[in-house]
Design goal:
Elements (H helix, E strand, L loop, with lengths): L1 H7 L4 H13 L3 H14 L3 H13 L3 H14 L4 H13 L4 H21 L4 H13 L3 H11 L7 H13 L3 H13 L4 H6 L13 H5 L2
Length: 214
Amino acid sequence: MFNQVVALAPDSFLGYSNLGATYVEQARYADAIKILEQSIAIRPSDYGYTNLGNAYFFLRRYEEADQAYQQAIKLSEKDSLLWWNLGDGYYWTPGKRSQSVAAYRQGITTAEEELRVNPKNSYSYGVLAICHAMLGEKKLALDALGSGLPLSPADPFLLFQAALVYNQFGQSDEAIAWLKKAQTAGYSQARIRDYPNFDSLWINPRSQELLRGR
């Protein structure tokens, strides 16, 4: 569909951005980068830069991911997801892990601001849980998950976030269980496979069906 949009409206930054996001979901990362750079050349957007950062992130090109995430934040600094992304970028960039702390802290602050506006925003609870988990704050992370999951118990993204939280604390069986739920709910297998946080999980025999897909 987005290919048709681009063909019909070659100057549509949103068409290119949506197509690039689709390519990221399909693990066509090199194609996504080319398309998203076209989108940004037409009109820079936080959405375009975020997906560009994601494409670089899944290719393990973390320095380039960081640069894209920084640009996304310049355009939309009040979105907690963007701070989580930047925190993850720094976390995995050699020599920059200490910089992830400030990004995750800002993610927490921003998510809390979002929840003051909408206390039923499960999306914000998920980001809050992840950022606390990446800072080693287990009780706060699990409390945030406990608040968010009842609001959207079948949300694939939130189920994926739950897996990230448990994985960060070394609870691999719980992480695998949540990943299976996320996959069943429709979460991208490519993202599960390519997210660096889960690299250590794949030695667990129970995780192999996740790699094979549903």
